[in-house]
Known about the structure:
The protein is α+β, with helices and mostly antiparallel strands. The protein has helices at about 60-80, 85-90, 100-115, 125, 135-150, 160-165, and strands at about 15-25, 30-35, 40-45, 50-55, 175, 180-185, 190, 205, 215-220. It folds into two domains: about 15-60 and about 170-220, Immunoglobulin-like, CATH 2.60.40; about 60-165.
Amino acid sequence: MSMTTNTQTPSGGIVNHAVGHIVTDAVAAAAATFYPGFLPRKIHFVNLTDRITDDWFENMAEDSLAAAIKGITAKLDADAGVTATDYEALWGSPAATITGLKAAIAGLTAKLDAGAGVTDTDYAALWGNPGANVVALKAAIAGITAKLDADAGVTDTDYASIWNAAASITSSLHSVVAGDKTLELTNGIYVDTNPNSATYGSFTLTATTMVASKKFYWEAIG
């Protein structure tokens, strides 16, 4: 077994640490954004009232996107309607970074435009240059998979249902009192990692997470 991704930041241990607590009133729940004052590498969010937790780790979203690209390219290699069988070899192991994912999407869409067996030739024009953030990258993957499903030359029509990483912009591990765990459903944590954003370093909880009349605690480590 080889580790396609194996990183640690920072190498010297904890740099920033913040803790917060929240009490919500009885008004209907709404999404909420918090500003720890630094870019978190880990967030632990606890609904103490209901004993529910959400945990987010640095690169959760990027790793999910890299896995989606690998899955799409492997599926293209095996697709009966697509002639080329080197999609995965060329673009299936992107670096789990914004830059690496953008490069893989650009290469994949260019290859689809030129690929024998693929009918449409506007993949790159539509989805080949996404913005440098997780939301834009997920939207690009959603566009590519939907387009593949509708492409007359591509045999399989389940690219989107299997590899649509844009189902949610949230990324976290959601755990409830009984021990059940889910990923990226209606609950979740979205961290703004775009250094050009006015809300850089903030994290947002969904309305489903921020339930009314509850007590919450959070910890952010950067």
